[in-house]
Amino acid sequence: MATVDIWNLEHEKVGTLELPEEIFGEATREDLISDAARAQMARIRKGSASVKTRGEVSGSGAKPFKQKRTGRARQGPIRAPHMRGGGVAFGPQVRSYSPRLTKKLRRKAFRSQLSTQARTEKLFVIKDFEIPEIKTKAMAEVINRFGIKKCMMVDVKENNKLRLSVRNLPHSCFRSVDGLNLLDLLRYDVLMISEASVKQLEGVLKS
Fold first, then answer.
1. pLDDT of residue 1
2. Are strands 123-126 and 3-7 parallel, antiparallel or unpaired?
3. What is the pLDDT of residue 204?
4. What's the total number of domains in the chain?
5. pLDDT value of residue 158
6. Closest CA to 154 of 95, 204, 99
7. Is the pLDDT of residue 207 over 60?
8. What is the rounded CA–CA span in Å between residue 158 and residue 179?
9. pLDDT category, 22, cuts 50, 70, 90?
10. Are residue 55 and residue 115 in the same domain, yes or no?
11. Which pLDDT band, with edges at 50, 70 and 90, does 33 fall under?
12. 85: domain range?
């Protein structure tokens, strides 16, 4: 098992933690991480574009004029796609863009990214994120103490004081451990996670 330091918000070492091998010992799989990230982006894509076909537009089903002896090309109902006000041929319909990626592979990709961040020292374990008041300047100072420019802070619950303190920082965000996802891990350079959150992840991400 890999061992990491535990820090407080003053950037003082207060202990060590053995990271669970089942989560933070995964090999780096860039191909799997890429597939899982694309799958997540596709799942949030709205497939709501829709047009009416010739069977859905309003209008008569009768021919506008007889078939023969008019000197004109034969013509079907006015609902045909080439007629003004007719239906659309081969237009978009409501659909889902979600690709097929199993839960097992999604979890494996997530563990792979967590492991990569731990190996590259882009993961800081924080004793706890208990702060006395909502103050953006104080959290900006915390981030500067760690020498970080872009980070995501993760706690076991909806820590409103922390969330409101970092929401106006341009390159930082807060996520509860239940809302942690692969795209957020890829979007932010450094992960600052509470000690309790690491233990909760251990129960959720074991294969």
1. 60
2. parallel
3. 75
4. 2
5. 80
6. 204
7. no
8. 10
9. confident
10. no
11. very high
12. 46-96
pLDDT exceeds cutoff 90 at 32: yes
**Residue found by looking up tokens 């004109």 in the block:** 72
The rounded distance, in Å, linking the Cα atoms of 102 and 108 is 10
How far apart CA 187 and CA 42 sit, in angstroms, is 16
Model's pTM, two decimal places?
0.79
Angstrom distance (rounded) from CA 155 to CA 96: 32
Same domain for 111 and 67? no
Give me the chain's average pLDDT, please. 90
pLDDT class for 206, splitting at 50, 70, 90? low
Per-residue DSSP letters for the chain? --EEEEE-TTS-EEEEEEPPHHHHTPPP-HHHHHHHHHHHHHHTS--------TTTS-S--S-SS-SSSSSS-----TTSTTSTT-PPTT------------HHHHHHHHHHHHHHHHHTT-EEEES----SS--HHHHHHHHHHTT-SSEEEEESS--HHHHHHHTTSTTEEEEEGGG--HHHHHHSSEEEEEHHHHHHHHHHH--
Same domain, 128 and 61: no
Residue 151 neighbours by CB under 8 Å, 6+ apart: 143, 171, 172, 188, 189, 190, 191, 192
Among candidate residues 30, 15, 21, 79, the one with its CA nearest the CA of residue 186:
30
